Amino acid sequence: MMDEGTELSLTIAQIVQRLKATHLHSQIERQAKECLHRPEIQLESLKEDVRNFLKASGWERKLQNAVYRELHVQPLPSHPAAPPEHAKEPLAYMRKAQVNWEKRILKSLNSMCTELGVPLARKRPAVEQKELTNKWNEMGTDEPDLSRFRPVYAPKDFLEVLISLRNPNHDSSEEASAKSHWGLIQVPLHDRDIPQMREAYSELSLTTGQLGIDDHTHVPPDLFESEHTRIGKKVVNEQDSAAAQQYSRQGCPTGLRADLWALILNSTNEPEDVMHYEQLKAGVIHHDLLVDNLIYKDVKLTASNDDYYFVFEDFLYQVLLCFSRDTAVLEHFSYNSATPPKSYIQGKVGVEEFAVVYPPNGVIPFHGFSMYVAPLCFLYNEPSKLYSVFREMYVRYFFRLHSVSSSTSGIVSLCLQFERLLQTHLPQLFYHLREIGAQPLRIAFKWMVRAFSGYLSTDQLLLLWDRILGYDSLEIVAVLAAAVFAFRAENLMEVTSLTSAEAVLADLSTLKVMPLIQIFLFATVI
Amino acid sequence: MSVNTVPCTVKPTVTLQIGDAETDSSRPGVYVIDVTLPIGQTVNIQEISFKNYYTAYVSVRLLRRDGEGAAKWTTCLRNHCLMPSPHTEEGSQDYCSVYRQQMLIEPDNVTSVRLILRQPSSAWLNFSVEDIKIHPCLNEDSEWDIPDWLSDLTQVDQLCDLQGLPDPQTVSSSIQQMWALTEVMQTNQTTASIGRFDVDGCYDINLLSFT
């Protein structure tokens, strides 16, 4: 709560500090130096002329995009007295819950280690390194014995943790009151109701054109689709990050989506990005990690079994194994409530010079993790580009889906919002499901944790993720979950058990997401 | 923002309630906290900082001593919102500051600060503010005490013969240049990591640690 002037200066200083470390900074410096030879640069108006040159040659736009990216991932400037843990998560009881959850995961991983007699990490012998290098593009053909490995946790274990979250200062006495909540999440986080969301998601309204609705075969393309695609091409030409994000709210045309998402995420494929990816690949070749087996197992259990994604199996290994070795991911822990696991090499426990993070990126994959990457394989076929886009999506959005935090895009908020929307707008359905022992969240949780990946058909999923990027929030995932229940409400009112409720909602592959969201937000009677 | 704080006593919280405090079953919605300075001392306040714990609104009143020595209570902040939605968690555990510029009156010659906390929602069992600190204005023209030994330093023109040593002026100017260079180097340091996750090529780990 500092005054605005100080807050702005602090933000600017932080962004400048971060951008100084990037390749873009040295590129712009070099450009500025080289342009001095140009005739239009006059000594009297040097500063102005160099600035104009950078603007005309597109470098200012690149800088703008980089600043825009920093604004996305930077935590808000905090009060000087606030400790760093407060920036990760302001509420003490949530921090505690996250710490306890992490302890459980670490214990589980340690016991897997000791039981199986497999080290957490080891250096590969030269022969093995050579073998892996040769097999790099076809790791899917390998059939290692993974039967002894089990996933560290599954979404339903995490759901139990969220259900047991309690604020010790919250009055949860049993008196029936207007605020009694029928759902499983019992923490009083703030969320938006439909009138507020109608304002926030105005681009999704009934009178605005959408991809996913107005590009239907029966709708003449002149009405919306052609013009929207023309604008999309212009946005890509201008290389404007902020414009791409705004554009994405109405959906991205299939042919432009890859470029638009890369623009929104400011994900480049410059030589230094390719080099970074090669460095990570070298990390995979040199060291074998226990989490690699968890990744293999996860891919084999989920993506490989999926009709849409099994063809991308090799890509998934190439991305996820490198992801585990990427120390750049550690930066996001300053605004993630989670903390990377720590260990000591050579058994020197407690000696700080021998302390390392495990895995190097601090993220322990869980059952279904590979589904965050799978849909992206439809957009990018170059591994370094695919990697770059995935990593940015993870540090902006996906990490919030599996950590305990009070953030509005965090999984706790999404679950609470889903339950509140259902209770407010479909009270009969909610009450009925509760009575038969089928709490709606138990069914919807697995959809939301994966941002619906693997549950919707791919084209529909990509339309949903367009809006996640466009609105820079995962809130739409909770809205869609409620909309799906609203859509199948009639069938759900007939069921008499949790199993039959799950059966009604088992197959979402025929759903069209944008009409569902639009109707739920803009046609619900309030 | 200054890190100087003024030593002060935070008195125990006083509840404001209608009816008998003991027999009334509902929880109080207003608390008053008095923060007093040691007797005789006054302060010109730059900032009052605290950590919120589920307080929705805070009002601040100041007891100021005017020219004649008489003390008077005035409100300097009225119903400042700490929690935009009192039934929900937003802002409930944030670190906050009230700055001089936000106050309705000049917070000078203050002997006592009264914080009036309000929490209209019945959702919370307790509410208060913690770690209350009063930051005084920095006095620009305060005299710094110069230690005695500084004035004993020899004057420049009293320096005796150099006996082959370089001229102190050239030495000091080149040292200044080097210092300027190191300052430039320091400000240009990048925060980019190298990307290595091993320690000298070794990444053999057995177990994760819990602390």
UniProtKB/TrEMBL annotation, chain A:
Domain of life (superkingdom): Eukaryota
Alphabetical list of SMART domains matching this protein: TBC
Domain Rab-GAP TBC: 251-472
Record-linked PROSITE patterns: TBC_RABGAP
InterPro entries listed in its UniProt record: Rab-GAP-TBC_dom (IPR000195), Rab-GAP_TBC_sf (IPR035969), TBC1D19 (IPR042507)
Entries under PANTHER family matching the protein: TBC1 DOMAIN FAMILY MEMBER 19
Descriptive protein name: TBC1 domain family, member 19
Organism name: Oncorhynchus mykiss
Underlying gene: tbc1d19
From TrEMBL, chain B:
Gene Ontology cellular component terms for the protein in this record: nucleoplasm
Name of the coding gene: nicn1
Protein name as it appears in the record: Nicolin 1
Taxonomy of the source species: Eukaryota, Metazoa, Chordata, Craniata, Vertebrata
Organism: Oncorhynchus mykiss
